[in-house]
Structure formats: structure tokens, C-alpha cells
Amino acid sequence: QFPFGRRLPCDIYWHGVSFHDNNIFSGQVNKFPGMMETVRKITLSRAMRTMQDLFPLEYNFYPRSWILPEELPLFVAEVRMMKDRNPSWKPTFIVKPDGGCQGDGIYLIKDPSDIRLTGSIQSRPAVVQEYICKPLLVDKLKFDIRLYVLLKSLEPLEIYIAKDGLSRFCTEPYQEPTLKNLHQVFMHLTNYSLNIHSGNFIHSASVNTGSKRTFSSILCRLSSRGADVKKLWSDIISLVIKTIIALTPELKVYYQSDIPAGKPGPTCFQILGFDILLMKNLKPILLEVNANPSMRIEHEQELSPGVFENVPSPVDEEVKVAVIRDTLRLVDPQKKKRKDTQDSLLRVVSAFCITWSMKDKQHKHHSLKLSLKLKFYLKLGSCPSTEQAEAGEELPEAALPSLCLKQVFPKYAKHFSYLRLVDRVAALFIRFLGVKGTTKLGPTGFRTFIRNCKLSNSNFSMAAVDILYIDITRRWNSMGIDHKESGMCLQAFVEAFFCLAQRKYKSLPLHDQVASLIELCECRLAAVHGKRLVWG
Ligand code: ADP
């Protein structure tokens, strides 16, 4: 632990909250700049909406969502229209405050008029979302899945998924929502932090029973009932890749602002927590993405009234230790340098992970002792077990468990690359940002983009370009997302780009309009670049 920073550079920095916890200039950091902002409920819902507009079928794993307060009239109008079209439709909606976690402030409603407008919605924006009424039940209980995903690199995109995850159970038998049971959080919300307070919560020493189980134990059960578990995994992998493809444009804008191209480093990686709900028909639905998933492997137990103790949680330990151990294996800076002694380094790394399960008091002392030993073993290339590392002994080579993190991208890139359209729009945006360290496009940058791509003509004058810029930028900035910088944010640019595409290719569907405009811009910019080279 370096609470006050550290002068000597490290290979890997493990930040507790965000990329900005320290000023880092080299090595690898376990957080991407802007990740926390990008996965907030509102930002994620906006990014998903953009993808749903372009690829409605591919992105139907995210519930229809509206952003409050600004889309309240739209929400009311759309629900009314759908009810008129289908009078037997009796929907339920879930309202989730932006930036909330652990079920905080969440409530269910049957009708848009039930939204609690008093004060909080104005001061605390929220997402209202279609509630999935028919989840898959196990032992009559609703549950969700927490899957760990390693975003190892943004450019080129590299994604790994942990082969096992956690299933977190409700503690009251599930019933479809009615006005009577809407308020029963132990029936509808699967959050561990809520259900732990229910008298029915079961801490189990086994990973197959209780209120928190491994996902693999659920899969075994489903498989024994004849479910197509292979198809389920492939749907989950596809959901994860598509979600990350929706997040990368925004992440790239933050990345270039904090780590301008050409700088030696640092590079970033990050473990994300994906919360997924399975529908009765086994279709996975994305609930949310967590930038800082809990890595605790203990839980609090009340020994006697008012006396609590941290006790190991076997299910958390089984899943989380493997995720951290394998993340360190994959980002290990020594891997390239000394492939032959890699296994020995990994033994030390796994020894570190195991010590994290130790109680707090011992923790500092042991990590210090081990960090000194790690330096020593890195030099020697020997491989101690936890006990031996602590005792200062060395171990003969021993096989490590196989990787629990499975690479899914670029492995399956050819099935998903066609979805990366907004990524290409973001590349155009970044190209015209100009000043290093910024995330917003000024009016001059926008004009230069239009000029270089030759998008203005007698029907679309530069004055009209300026009006488009001002209209869209003003609206986005009034939504109060980020007042720190003035100018056009990426999502506003994407909206402007879609407008331009619709103007230019009127008769095509949105996806084809956008794809055609991207190709035109890329082609014209390549020509400009080519000319510059010739003149140069
Ligand atoms: P938080 O960050 O506060 O945990 P989530 O989006 O994860 O917010 O929602 C909390 C819980 O509410 C989820 O774990 C899930 O059980 C339930 N939930 C959330 N969204 C939906 C939905 N659209 N349909 C059904 N249940 C949902």
C-alpha cells in the first residue's frame, strides 16, 4: 500500500477506485480513465440506445430504457402508444437512480404516473427501464449472475471472460409483479447487500447451495434438466462482447485525453463485473456493468448479538481468487522478458492472491513480508507456495491451475467487427479534437471535420453547419452531464453525425446511412492525407 504515492516506478499499479488514484507515467494500471463515468446507468443506457438504433436485433439483450427527467414525456408517450396498440400489455418498470449501487433508491412501478417526482428525480437523475417479469427461477427464487470480464486492452481490443461467476439469490419466493408485491425487495431485487439483511439469507459452506452460489453449479443443474448450456454460454459471450463494443468509443475518447498517443505509457487493463439476468427461456439480459466489482472473499457474521467477525466465504474465494490470479498472469510484465521462468513468477503471484484472504490485522504485515520476497524471487526465478513464501523456503516447479479467463476477443472478432461503427465515428471525432487532453470538440474542430470530409455544399452551407453544432451542443450541455469543459461531447457528435447521414442518404435505413457516411469520410480524409504526403 502506498497511501501517499511512490517515487520509484512499478510494473503494475493496482488502484482501488479509478485511474486517477495516482499520477502514473509508465507500467500498467488496473483501471481505464473514464470507466466509472462510462458504465454509469445513464451513460450505459445512452450507449446501448445508440447501438439499438443501429442494430436493433443484435442489441435486444438490454431492456428498453428511458432517461429521467429529460425523457419523461417520451417515456409517457411511448408507453401510452404501446398500451393503445396492445391493450393486454400490463408492463412493470424499474426506476434506478444514476450512479446508485447495491439497490439503493430502486423501486418498481406499474404506470409512468407512479414515478416519484418529488425533489429527488430533479436533483438525482435516473433510468427507468422495462422490468423483466419472467426471470428463470431456481428453487422458486429469482437470481442474477455476476460475471467477471477482463478488458485487457482497448487498442487492439482484447477481452477475457471468467469461466465461472457468482449467482446471487433473492430470499423470498418470486411472484410476478402485482401492485401488492411491488415493494418486496427480497422478492424482486437480487442484490447481496439487500438480501443479507433478510432472515432467510443462507450462508453456505458449499458452492452449490445457499443464497450465493457459483454460476457453474447453476449450469450443472440446468444441464441435468436438459437445457442447452453451450448455447447459453455462447449468448453470454456475445452479450459481453457487444456491450464492450458499445462502451469502447467513449473509453477511447477518455484514453486519448489522459494518455495521448505517442506517450510511452502507462497502459491499462480492468476487471469489470457484468450483472446478468436469465429469462425463463434462458435468454441473458444485461442489467449493468460495474467498474469496481467487489473482490471481497469474506463476509461478516454475527457471532452473538452485536458482535461481528469476518469469516471466509468459500464461494467468493473460489471465483475471485482465480480471476485476480489469472489477470496478473495475463498482464505479467515479465512474461515477454523471461518466458522460461514465467511459471515460477506466477507461483508468487498466486501466493499473493491467497494472502488477500487473510484477516485485516495480519494483512499489512504479510503483504510487506511477501512484497520483499517477491522482489527476491523475481531475481531468482524460483517458485514458493504461500506457506513456503512466508517461511522463506523455495519450492520445486509445480503446475498452476489452467486459466479461468477465456479469451473471447479477438478470438471471435470476425463475428462482431461489423458492429464497430460508432468506434469509427469516435475515431473521426478524436482526429478533429485537436488540443491534447480534451474530450470535447470545439466549433472550429467541427467545421474542419465538415470541410475536410467535404460535407457542406449549396444545400448545406457552413452557416447551417454552425447552427447544427450549436443546437446539438447546447442541448447536450444543458442535460448537465459534464460542465467541466465546453464544446461537443462524443455522444453529441454521434447525434450530429447521424443527422448528417440521414440528410445525405435519405432513402436508406439508419444503419446503411451511417455506414455510408463513415466510408465517405474515411475515404475523403485518406485522400487529404495522401495529398499532404505528396506535397510534403
Ligand atoms: P444496482 O447498481 O443498484 O445494484 P441494478 O441495475 O443492478 O442496480 O439493479 C438492482 C437489482 O434489480 C438487480 O440485481 C436485479 O435483481 C433487479 N433488476 C434491475 N433491473 C432489472 C430489470 N430490468 N428487470 C428485472 N430485474 C431488474
TrEMBL record:
Keywords, comma-separated and alphabetical: ATP-binding, Ligase, Nucleotide-binding
InterPro entries named among the record's database cross-references: TTL/TTLL_fam
Protein name: TTL11 polyglutamylase
Keyword ATP-binding in record: yes
GO MF annotation list: ATP binding; tubulin binding; tubulin-glutamic acid ligase activity
Signal among keywords: no
Entry's Gene Ontology BP terms: microtubule cytoskeleton organization
Entry GO terms, CC: ciliary basal body
